[in-house]
């Protein structure tokens, strides 16, 4: 069945049409593509500028400001801290813009941590998370005075051993796995992180063992508790449930002599409006205000909260611009394929999670609607960006399409599959724009190979 049309959609304010041209802030998207095409076409085997990621600086700042306004309204200015989830998009320029808004960073690998340090995030406001931290990553975190979430018994042992080796104190939080049922976090199973059978967090039956181990080491400072329930959450009441769960555990720990439990790190990423109002069947999407309110209303005065948003900060700031290579039909006419130059290696979310991304023409024309699969050139039948999608106008070879809401987990999950270079990234600020990442070429791909 065809998905809903794109005629009456609600766009994020940074992206809009003016005289049939699609704009990012004040800059027509086709002008960026055109200029890049002219300036870079001599390079890299005359490859075109597309596929091309374009981000809006104003939208990024607006999203962060939304959180800050909600925190201020809840009178929690010094008590709820925004730690940007670097995994969503680790472009250094973009991270720098986030840092300038006084955010911290939550990282899940040594290189993400290094990227946060390089961008100038305050080390005390960087947190290393992850269920499989390696010794070199723990060392990097401790040497720089970053916090860590303890994910398991062996993770606790590793952190203790690195703290002893460096003779450095380690500020840690315990990541709790409350063992939820899938039905209590109605998101894609790949995006659930606190289920009974999840690989993340200390399961409740091992909690005391981990606690005793940490308490026995004087270099360990247990400063809080963490729980992350999943991503693309639509209903903010889950944050209240997590807050209550963590507060209960905290209370028990206090009676056992843990007196420095200053932080609750309440993970769980709020969803964004990928459908732009075109899917009436979806449950209502809570706002950042709902999220903050759900937490703030339960907080005792001596507790501070870290939240870890990624998608809701960068998701709707980015589009993927792709050129139509041609149109073809299946023999029985049951399928019409729009073959574009972006593929699953550039944006894997549709293939990986059957995720929906809205598709819009970069130049509007008057032509008839029809239903298409939008597919890439990668040699996989699962390589698609949209399936059974109603496009509001006839796709034409050489024209551009914008795949919406790809700022989070777009370029961050991109790969070199089929030896395709990762796309270029551009940041728009009003009517100015600049390249913030060059596209990868053949040399970038073979540089690390040994002939
Ligand atoms: C531990 C942790 N923190 C933060 C995030 C960011 O979530 P989101 O991008 O949905 O806001 C994730 C994503 O899954 C995560 O696993």
UniProtKB/TrEMBL annotation:
Keyword field: Amino-acid biosynthesis, Decarboxylase, Lyase, Lysine biosynthesis, Pyridoxal phosphate
Sites of N6-(pyridoxal phosphate)lysine modification: 87
Catalytic activity: meso-2,6-diaminopimelate + H(+) = L-lysine + CO2
Residues annotated as domain Orn/DAP/Arg decarboxylase 2 N-terminal: 70-314
EC number from the UniProt entry: 4.1.1.20
Cofactor: pyridoxal 5'-phosphate
Pathway listed: Amino-acid biosynthesis; L-lysine biosynthesis via DAP pathway; L-lysine from DL-2,6-diaminopimelate: step 1/1
This protein's record includes keyword Amino-acid biosynthesis: yes
Family affiliation: Belongs to the Orn/Lys/Arg decarboxylase class-II family. LysA subfamily.
Identification of the protein by name: diaminopimelate decarboxylase
Organism in which the protein naturally occurs: Daphnia sinensis
Origin organism lineage: Eukaryota, Metazoa, Ecdysozoa, Arthropoda, Crustacea
């Amino acid at each position: 069945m065809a998905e809903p049309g794109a005629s009456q959609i609600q766009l994020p304010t940074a992206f809009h049409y003016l005289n049939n041209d699609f704009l990012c802030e004040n800059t027509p998207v086709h002008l960026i593509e055109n200029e890049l095409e002219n300036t870079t076409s001599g390079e890299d085997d005359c490859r075109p500028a597309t596929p091309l990621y374009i981000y809006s600086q104003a939208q990024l700042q607006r999203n962060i400001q939304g959180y800050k306004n909600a925190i201020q309204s809840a009178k929690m200015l010094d008590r709820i801290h925004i730690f940007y989830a670097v995994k969503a998009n680790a472009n250094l320029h973009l991270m720098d813009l986030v840092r300038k808004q006084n955010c911290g960073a939550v990282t899940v690998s040594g290189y993400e941590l290094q990227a946060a340090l390089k961008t100038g995030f305050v080390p005390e406001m960087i947190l290393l998370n992850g269920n499989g931290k390696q010794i070199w990553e723990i060392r990097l975190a401790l040497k720089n005075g970053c916090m860590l979430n303890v994910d398991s018994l062996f993770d606790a042992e590793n952190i203790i051993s690195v703290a002893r080796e460096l003779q450095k104190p380690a500020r840690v939080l315990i990541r709790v796995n409350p063992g939820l049922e899938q039905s209590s976090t109605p998101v894609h199973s790949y995006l659930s992180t606190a289920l009974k059978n999840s690989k993340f967090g200390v399961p409740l039956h091992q909690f005391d063992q981990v606690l005793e181990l940490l308490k026995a080491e004087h270099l360990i400072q247990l400063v809080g508790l963490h729980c992350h329930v999943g991503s693309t959450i639509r209903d903010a009441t889950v944050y209240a449930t997590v807050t209550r769960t963590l507060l209960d555990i905290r209370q028990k720990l206090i009676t056992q002599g843990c007196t420095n439990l200053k932080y609750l790190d309440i993970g769980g990423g709020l969803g964004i409006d990928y459908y732009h109002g075109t899917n009436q069947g979806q449950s209502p999407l809570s706002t950042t205000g709902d999220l903050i309110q759900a937490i703030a209303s339960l907080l005792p005065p001596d507790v501070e909260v870290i939240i870890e948003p990624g998608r809701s900060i960068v998701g709707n700031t980015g589009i993927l611009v792709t050129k139509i290579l041609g149109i073809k039909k299946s023999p029985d006419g049951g399928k019409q394929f729009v073959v574009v130059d972006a593929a699953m290696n550039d944006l894997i979310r549709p293939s990986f999670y059957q995720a929906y991304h809205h598709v819009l023409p970069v130049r509007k024309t008057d032509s008839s609607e029809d239903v298409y699969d939008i597919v890439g050139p990668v040699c996989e039948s699962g390589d698609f960006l949209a399936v059974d999608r109603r496009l509001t106008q006839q796709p034409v070879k050489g024209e551009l399409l914008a795949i919406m809401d790809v700022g989070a987990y777009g370029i961050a999950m991109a790969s070199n599959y089929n030896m395709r270079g990762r796309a270029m990234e551009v940041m728009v600020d009003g009517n100015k724009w600049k390249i913030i990442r060059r596209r990868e070429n053949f040399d970038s791909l073979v540089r690390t190979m040994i002939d």
